Amino acid sequence: MFTILNPFREFQDFDQDMGRIFSRGRQAYPPVNVYVTGDDVVVTSEVPGIEASQIDLTVAGDMLTLKAEKKPVDLKEGEKWHRNERAYGSFNRTVKLPYNVDSSKIEALYDKGILKLTLPRAESDKPRKINVRTTE
Questions:
Q1: Neighbours of 99 (CB within 10 A)
Q2: Contacts of range 20-26, beta carbons closer than 8 Å, 24 or more positions apart
Q3: Burial status of residue 109 (CB atoms within 10 A of its CB: 0-12, 13-18, 19 or more)
Q4: What are the residues whose beta carbons fall under 8 Å from the beta carbon of 57, sequence distance 6 or more?
Q5: Is the full-model pTM beyond 0.85?
């Protein structure tokens, strides 16, 4: 039986593989969004396939660090990969927040692979109005 190779298809597959390899180095993982609502900073991140208990979060001042490990899928005996594109391994992402937060009031919610953190601004970091006295 003959297998007809399509050189354009082979080249296209090679190009896609190279794109995936080099794009990994450019994009920070996991991707995060950071936005401000009133006195809170909200951070959302895509971390599917990880148990919530395995996510390690730390905050120091205005720096948030997210660590976890995505486990590889183990095949059973007699199974073999046809395509294996899902990345695995440990990651460590640190994000600078727009201001210092009160670490005792941080809320974290994990739902369907999306981690949502609500980080209240520290009282000591909130802007204060300063009254100006006169000499009279």
A1: 15
A2: 20/85, 24/87
A3: exposed
A4: 64, 65, 66, 67, 106, 108, 117
A5: no
CA 44 from centre of chain: 8
Question: Three-state DSSP class for 24?
Answer: helix
Condensed to tens digits (0 to 9), the pLDDT of residues 11-28 reads 666 666 666 655 555 578
Cα–Cα distance for residue pair 11/28, rounded to 1 Å: 28
Is a pLDDT exceeding 70 seen at residue 57? Answer: yes
β partners of residue 99: none
What 8-state DSSP symbol labels residue 27? S
